[in-house]
Each structure stands twice: as structure tokens, then as C-alpha cells.
């Protein structure tokens, strides 16, 4: 919240923050189709929150950038994901991996995808978010320049 408040003055943000409520598939669709940039900062895999068949049917070319700061695990999130994975096929779970998620988003029309590739902590994702916002919004760097900075 602190990072969002720091950069809130630069752009018009809308979405679901914190523990307001889990977004419905309709809310996910509205947020993705009505944005030029989308940020997911949350627990486990982004695609564990969104139905893959719903996503692949979307057309979201207005969304130029998707940032996925996911793959954070707590005991509670691990239990939730384990319980939901029981009912999924191996193929379905494979579609939730970072590379496959980026490909699916690209196929729907998203211009660029920045995503974590392995499990991390909330603190490390907060640091990544700060670097992203600082470079993209304050310094006006390109997505490529910003990703290069994140890789260091």
C-alpha cells in the first residue's frame, strides 16, 4: 500500500487492493480489458486466480504491460493452492507456470509481460515493485531498461 500511495499521484489506479475481497472472474476481465497497464501483486501463481479458458478467450490489446509479482508462498496460500490443484489436470497446472502464463497473456494481445520466475518473498517483491515504479513512472525509463535494472 505504501508503494502504491507513493506513486498514486502519477496515474489513475483502480482495482482490488489488500483484503477487500477476492476478485471474481468478471472483475478480472473488467480490470484487464479496461487498462493500459495491469499489476498483480499477490500470493502463489497469478493463473491460479484466473481461469485459463476464460483468459485465452479474451482480447485485450489495450493492455500494453502486465506486471506479475506473484509466486509468494505462505502456509495458508500453500494449503489453498494444494487443495485447488487436486482438481486440476497436469496440463492445467502447467499453464499456470510463469513462461506459459506470459505466452497466454501475449496471445490475448498484451504488449509486454514482466513476471517472476521462481518463488520469492513479499519483501523481495516489494523491492521489485519499488524499482519498477521508480524507473517507469519517476524516471520515465522504458520497460526494457527497467527489466535490465531488475536483472542486476
UniProtKB/TrEMBL annotation:
Transmembrane segments: none annotated. It comes from the Eukaryota. GO terms for biological process: axoneme assembly; cilium movement involved in cell motility. This is CFA46 protein. InterPro entries: CFAP46 (IPR039586).
Amino acid at each position: 500500500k505504501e508503494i502504491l500511495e507513493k506513486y498514486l499521484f502519477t496515474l489513475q489506479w483502480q482495482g482490488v487492493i489488500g483484503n477487500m475481497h477476492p476478485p471474481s472472474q468478471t472483475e478480472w476481465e473488467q480490470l484487464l480489458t479496461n487498462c493500459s497497464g495491469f499489476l498483480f501483486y499477490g500470493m502463489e501463481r497469478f493463473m491460479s486466480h484466473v481461469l485459463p479458458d476464460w483468459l485465452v478467450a479474451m482480447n485485450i490489446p489495450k493492455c500494453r504491460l502486465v506486471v506479475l509479482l506473484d509466486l509468494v508462498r505462505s502456509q495458508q496460500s500453500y494449503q489453498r493452492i494444494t487443495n485447488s490443484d487436486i482438481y486440476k489436470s497436469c496440463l492445467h497446472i502447467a499453464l499456470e507456470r510463469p513462461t506459459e502464463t506470459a505466452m497466454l497473456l501475449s496471445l490475448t494481445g498484451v504488449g509486454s509481460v514482466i513476471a517472476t520466475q521462481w518463488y520469492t518473498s513479499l519483501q523481495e517483491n516489494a523491492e521489485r515493485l519499488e524499482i519498477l515504479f521508480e524507473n517507469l513512472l519517476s524516471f520515465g525509463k522504458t520497460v526494457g531498461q527497467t527489466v535490465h535494472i531488475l536483472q542486476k
